[in-house]
Fold these 3 entries.
Entry 1:
Amino acid sequence: MTDPGKEVTEREWRPNQTTHQGSPPRDPWTLILGILGGVLLGTGVTFAILGSIGVFEEPTPPTLPPPPVLTIPPPAGPAPTLGDTVTVAAVAQRVIPSTVFIEISGFLLGASGSGVIYGTDGYIITNHHVVEGAGSVAVVFADGARYPARVVGTDPLTDLAVLSVDREDLSPIDLGTSANLVIGEPAIAVGSPLGLDGGPTVTSGIVSAINRTLEVTRGEPLYGLVQTDAPIAPGSSGGALVDAGARLIGITTAIAVSDVGAEGLGFAVPVDIVVGVVNDLIRSGEVAHARLGIEGSTAWADRGDAEYPAGVGVSGIPDDSAFEAAGGQINDVIVEIAGVRVSTLDDLLAVLRLFRAGQTTPVRILRADADTTLDVVLGRLSP
């Protein structure tokens, strides 16, 4: 009888001992060498396949993903409506979208300033001294958008300039008036001092004085300025000075500085002058400033032991004088122009900044004991 265990063993081994039916069994060493050869052959085939698909080639450096498609965030929405209780925060939220940062570059020049959006046609108001000598100008809006700008025109006499940008979704500033400003009323300055990142800077104070004259080192004196104690730092030039209703009352232009630093006195070109100059620059690129055609000085009146400024005494009349053509004479005292009281020569020059060559304006004078009004067709001030 066949041993069952041996039969099972033979059956298990038989498939490995025979390559073809009826072939004699191989010896163990042949079997071992065959297995090793198969393994090596399989490995070689595997390497060949892997090599053909590039597994053993030098790996290609990973390519960086393309930059993301950037989208501009939508506008923050309309400015809030000022409530019955006006706060600096409410005014700031209203004015900040209307204020811009201005970057200047040129030959040996790198500077910055501030500006105010004027209307919805892409115009920006700033100072003449901010863009003077600029090779290129860029405007950065409160939402961070940066646009190239071109200079439409500048006016050194009032230190104003107009830029233009190609942008439609603008938030123009609301315009006020400087004609009825009251000393002590709130004044808020919005600008971009020192080129600091993060948007405009807001400071608050009061209207400290009106109708100031300021001698500046860069050109002619500035007349009729609004003075404020709202801190104004370098770089804020061209920014907005607004009232408690967030309405523009002036374009900041200068600060008072002594040996110990800023004196807390800032000055702004009054908005009534700004609007006239800016509109002229937009229309023609220049301003036809009015010329009365007199030489004079402040006239003083005695009252007891005191003296008071009483008008402008005419001491000389140059060629092509509009004043003389209307009947004015030497020794006349000018006391009023277009209904505006004139007590000093600075008063007269400030009022004239509101007029243009060719306009006719009533000029009230005192001559001897007579009180006379002349209708003067104003001449043009030479640039």
Entry 2:
Amino acid sequence: MSSPVAARAAFATLFGAIGASFPYLPVYYRSVGLSLGEIGLLSSLAAAVGLIGAPLWGTLADRYPTSRVLLPAAATLAAVSALALALARQPVAIAAAVIATSVALAGVTPMLDTRALEAARGDDEHYGRLRVWGSIGFVVVVWVTGFLIERSGIASLFTVYVPLLVITAVVALLLRGTGRAVAPLPRLSGIGLVLRHPTLRSFLLAAFGVWSASMAINAFLSIHLLAIGAPGELVGSAWALGAMVEVPIMWAYPTLATRFGARRLLIAGASAFALRALALPLLAHPVLAALTMLFHGAGFGLLLVGGVTYVSRHAPAGTAATAQGILTAVVFSLAMIVGPGLGGLAAGAWGLPVMFGIAAVVGLVAAVLMALAVGGPDGRD
């Protein structure tokens, strides 16, 4: 199996596993008696661990750029931890399993992104045509899992989640890094190099605001849809709809970047997130609320591919995986701490519609910051 084919397969199984878990785990936590505030804090705790884990995994991958062990090891740890979560019954055991899973997944994503960028043979914008298979896997699995949950109960998500992580670990064995560190970087100095880089620092700050607002909504979207009368199938369909929009956007990203410029695509993605946040609290019908995921899918596709390629282009020498690890930490860890954590407190105090409105304001401000951060003169950064 060639590296591009293996990368496609790994993206499909990894994000299929995420499709089986992320939209439904808040509902599972609710079913075992956790409150909205507790769900938000649990998500934030897991994200805090990932905030540390992702850059460390990335640094380790940069020190051993041809290793075939690190990526499968992280995926295997994720599978074992997800199984532990399925078996956990006490709150402390649940929290421990969630933390362990978060540590593992924090390593899988940046290392797989780095391998995919290498498989694209230097054409960063074609990374999207590899990553799109993750969205395809997400679409298929989130839909299947929704139907399975409707018939067999919320705990059945683990019968899909755990096996897909195992398959990811197996496929990852076929991916070997081809990169070489340009200069030996002592210990954790690569993290400091990335964080001190002025272009990357501005971009990461803007990305933090954009993704925090979106994560606040995502953490409680499934609960909100169920509260306004959506059946389980519609919840799954809403997430699948968002991912379906990602597919053509990621596939067409090289063409879109050539036509409009990568800078404008990042700004458009941030704006799409803000539009989803504005529309959601105004729509009481379950189907209309679910359709707001069209905006989310557009924003996710543009920001994910655009963010990975932007960071890849500006990463200091010898920090390819470290830079991706920091991006992962900001987007999927730090934003998950602030977004769902504060979102849960706001939802508990004022209700979900008000929290969605606050997220919309934050998202709009962050979109402006994104425009300022990536405002390169050539319009392509």
Entry 3:
Amino acid sequence: MGTHFTNPIRPVARKQHTCTACFAKIEAGETYVTQSGHYEGHAFRNKFHVECWNELSESGEFEFSPGELDPPERLQSQPNA
């Protein structure tokens, strides 16, 4: 079984989500990146802060463990980021 995924899209959140990369909240009204597909036979749908997506994309490999990134700097000073 291979890995298949859709091209990422950048919708505006209609409700609160959790970023797959940093586990911080993506608030309603915020633009985020989402991508879905299949990895090793399992379906997935990931949602990322734009900053987290950019950080993961810069590496070129895009292998990551959920929650491994720090929240974006703009959220680090906010409580419950």
